[in-house]
Amino acid sequence: MSSRRRTIATGSLLTASFSAVMIFSFSAGADDPGPMSDQGGKAVDEAPAGVKLTTSLPEKISVDNGSQETAITATVKNGGTKESGAIRLLVVGFDGLSVKSVKGCSQIAEKDLPEGSNSGFACAIDSLAAGKSKSYAVDATFDLKKEGKICLPVQDADGTKTFWQQGPVPFGANNPSPNAPATPLLLGTDNSPVTPGGDTPGDSSGDTSGDKSGDKSGGEELPRTGPADQVLPLGAAGAALISAGVAGLWWTQRRGVRSES
């Protein structure tokens, strides 16, 4: 094989290797929730002196269009100067968003759920040190034919006081992709429901998502965000680069055989 052919073949192999590294690196970081936000949150009852409790949710989640499953990270933080003492974080689902499990937390009985909610879990925390945070892995489902909201109240141990509450804040997409493998949803965005075939938003009653008067979650209207960005998935781009690299290597080998013959 000439030095020129060796150079081309090496370049093709490097392209394929680089693409594979991109894909595997993306997969390894799939559990990273990405940027977090306290959008839709506010202090309610006064917290103990020196304690400042807040929560945050991912700015973006992804819903599997087949199983309707999604994963959410819920984080509570003490931004104060003193320990919080015993507190609890609630993770509560509304409308199309149903909370199925929260690792390390107990399910709230149906009779004890907040009004208008469909599911919820309570996470007991003995104490949260000053400047520290604690994150919980939330498994949920999201019916993309509906709007969906989540709520994170932070209370004292017996639930008599609520120091902070984020939500009910919506996750949604202004431009859903029902025929794609997954649909990205943005925090603070009302979902525009679609049918599996990608028909016009709205349900069988003829009511569209533009009318929010039927919302029984009790939460005040929250700011809207812009439409979801249309981004080529990194895995698909990497697969395309691998294909190009393999094709280049095959073509080089074929050319070498012809030249030698």
3D structure, described in words:
The protein has 261 residues and is α+β, with helices and mostly antiparallel strands. It contains 2 helices and 13 strands, in the order H-E-E-E-E-E-E-E-E-E-E-E-E-E-H. It has helices at residues 3-28, 234-260; strands spanning 36-37, 41-43, 53-58, 60-64, 69-78, 87-95, 97-102, 106-107, 117-125, 133-142, 148-156, 162-172, 182-187. Strands 2, 4, 6, 8, 9, 11, 12 and 13 form an 8-stranded antiparallel sheet that branches. A 5-stranded antiparallel sheet has the order 1-3-5-10-7, with no helix packed on it. Strand 11 and strand 12 form a beta hairpin. Helix 1 packs antiparallel against helix 2. The longest helix is centred in the C-terminal third of the chain and has 27 residues, at 234-260. It starts with a helix and ends with a helix. Residues 12-30 and 198-261 have low confidence and may be disordered. Residues 209-223 have a biased composition (Basic and acidic residues). Residues 1-30 form the signal peptide.
Main features:
signal, LPXTG cell wall anchor domain-containing protein, disordered C terminus, five-stranded antiparallel β-sheet, 2 helices, 20% helix, alpha+beta, 261 residues, 34% strand
Number of strands: 13
Helical region count?
Answer: 2
Secondary-structure content class: alpha+beta
The low-pLDDT segments are 12-30, 198-261
Biggest beta-sheet profile:
8 strands, antiparallel
Helicity, in percent?
10-25%
Calculate the terminal CA-CA distance, rounded to whole Å.
12 Å
Q: Could you tell me the radius of gyration in angstroms?
A: 24 Å
| Average pLDDT figure | 75
Percentage of β-strand residues? 25-35%
Shape: globular
* Oligomeric state as shown: single chain
| Sequence of secondary-structure elements | HEEEEEEEEEEEEEH
